[in-house]
TrEMBL record:
Residues 204-232 are annotated as: Disordered. One of its GO terms (biological process) is methylation. The lineage of its organism: Bacteria, Bacillati, Actinomycetota, Actinomycetes, Kitasatosporales. Residues 44-138 form the Methyltransferase type domain. PANTHER family: METHYLTRANSFERASE LIKE 7A (PTHR45036:SF1), METHYLTRANSFERASE LIKE 7B (PTHR45036). SUPFAM superfamilies: S-adenosyl-L-methionine-dependent methyltransferases. The keyword Oxidoreductase does not apply. This is Class I SAM-dependent methyltransferase. Residues 211-226 have a biased composition (Pro residues).
Amino acid sequence: MARSAPRRPLFARYYAHVAGPALEKAGAARHRRSLLEGLTGRVVEIGAGHGLNFPHYPPGVAHLLAVEPEPRLRALAADAARAAPVPVEVAGARGERLPADGASFDAAVVSLTLCSVGDQAAVLAEIRRVLRPGGHLRFFEHVRAVTSGTRRVQRVLDATVWPLLCGGCHLGRDTVAAIRDAGFTVTALRTFTFPAPGPAGTCVLGTAEKPPAPAPPPERSGPPRPSGRGAG
């Protein structure tokens, strides 16, 4: 049986009215623009929140399916979709079970999402399913720290209060390794500190590709045909 959509009303209010605006004030918009630059065709965004990415989608996007399981954030995303520069369909679903056919999207987007999904491997497998061969996954995530000391802090926080206070978020996930383990090829990757040094400050922004469809095997030629001429 599929798990019901998570309801985190307190965290949803906090993220929509406090954490989200704070990230924008710290300069998240420039990372969102970089994340989405050049996208075209049909795109699915997993964990769309209340739609902070919507204003930054380029006009080449023909259709955006924005998936958000949390009801309060999803309602805010539906409001934001009305002002988006591209056609947006907001849907309530979990990343582990996307409401889409296989190979039906040109690109997928995750933005500060893979830290909080219940089953990271399952979500990435589902993204791979709905992407066409050669399709791209764009990701902007906070991840496991570079230094051993900060990693220890992340492990302690992940095992105690952080997921409870921050909507299921985990600080110490090795998300880039998980993307590769899901069968994607990482083609671009930038690591940086945002919004400030600390347990949640190590971020990555990049692109990964679903392998293209294999080329069809060459046609096998039959045995040589007789020329029809006798020996001279």
